[in-house]
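Team,

Forwarding the record for the chain on the shared tracking sheet. I've put the sequence and predicted structure together so nobody has to dig through attachments.
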Amino acid sequence: MFLKLSLTGIKGRLRDYVVLFSGLVMASGIFYMFEGLATNKTFLESNSMISSVVMIFHLGTVLLSIITFVYILYANSFLMTMRQKDYAMFMMLGAKGRKIAQLIFIETVVVGVGATVMGIVLGIGLSSIVQQMLVKQLEIKITHFSAVNTTAVLFTIVFFVVIFLLAALVNAMTIVKKPILSLLKASETPLPANRKPITLVIEVIAGVLFLGIGYFMMTQVMKLAFLALIIALITIVLGTYFVFHSILIFVLDVLKKRDSIALKKLNNFTLSQLSFRIQDYTRILSMVAMLFALALGAITVGLGFHNEIMKMTEATSTYDLVLNNGQNFSDSDFKKIHPSSETIYQQKEDANTVYYDRSQFDQTPLAVKKFTSNRQTKVVRYTGEQLANDLAASDQLRSLELPEQSAKKHQFLTNEEFSALPMKAAELRVITVKDFVKDKEALKELANENFSKNPTLDKNMGSMNQKSLVYELYNALFSGFEFMGFFLGIAFLTMLASCLMFKILSGAKSDIQRYSMLEKIGVRRKLLKQSIRKEIGILFLVPGLLGVIHVLFGLQLFTTLLSESYSNIWLPFLIFFVLYFIYYLLTVWIYTGIVMKRED
């Protein structure tokens, strides 16, 4: 009977429940995606430079659990706001509190368990899709990754079932204890706290100072190390809170006092709406801003590692291809690549010495890349004379030779002297192509063929001379962090935007009367919709902007890991803007549908 009544109640508000249900499905799906990574120790250790990243993910699990719990609280608040008047009507018709509590409990559990099961299925699908997209688009190598993770499935089910059972108990106890009149008139308006001007000014100054100290500490990480991180974390969290608890209120008050702004269209109503509820939004806006920074930072750093792969490859490898005994390669072997330069250094050798034609190095000096003091690289070119007289330069040439030649001396002869030697000449070929990315696979084939034609060449050591293999090495090292950055960034963005959306929607019912009164006194629906778009836009925009500022300063923390941490920063910002804007449009659409329903 109660199950049927619960399902009837859900069916009666199917549109609102679809919104709630889809949000909870997304939450559990994201949670499963994260746990699929966090509980796969083999994947984390196989695709990252440091195995300690496993501990980072365990800490991340705790953080995500807290965020998910907060998200469910706001989604649950949205559910109760929709149904509390119905419960009050049941009480007025004689239903006992115990029966109402059972009804609430069943509704909450049914919605929660159903959303969790569907969320896990969605999470498995999303994990597979995201993994394939990232591997294909970013050309990263991911090993030991499986979209289906039994441990993650069990952990997700247990976590969400426990959360929804607690939510069901809290909902039941809260509704039953409230008087019927309170249920009918609940959430009419959030009461603004009285704020003294001097308190507001002090908090504004404190917010600016805290943020300033936090941003400064981020630039001092190299000097103060862990102490700078602790101070930055504490001060930025406090500063973020004060931004919404005082600075935003201060700005809204200033705007309301400017007639040129406040008296234009419905701006005064919109600003009053924001001022009225902003203190109730302080915590959620602060959390959204911090999570926005974490999510955007994760994607930005992930892209930074992606960019680092090619930069490290370029810095390590001077030539795109090095061929030992190049005379064993025919012209047909080079048809798939597009050389921009090709140099042949002839070799002759006996038991103790490797002989070179000095004129060939004078004509085309040996190029070697060296790191400078500012982490950049420069190309140094060695002529035949320099190679003959400089031991360090000669060692650079030795790194391109075969292992059996490493113990032999170098001797650089004139062209006549070299030609007079009775030994058969071999070729050391060094090639640079016009477009490495385009020819990468063909270069890899030639590099592997070079190993097969020279069995004594150690592939582990000799691969550092082959640019295509160096690229694969760095790609394997950085791909784990790159993959996790994208994966987690998108997950956190979806979660934080959903939290903000449900916080806004949970107060929508109390706004119906305000918009209805404005419409009855003649305000056009077009202006009302503009007011809604502005109000929700500010609630989305402000934490987003503050989160962007946090990221711009926070990237200072990665200057030791990334050569150019701000390179191509527009791309992750664009990805975030698109996803964040979609949530904004969705929130405006749902909110407008709730507060501006026409009476039958």
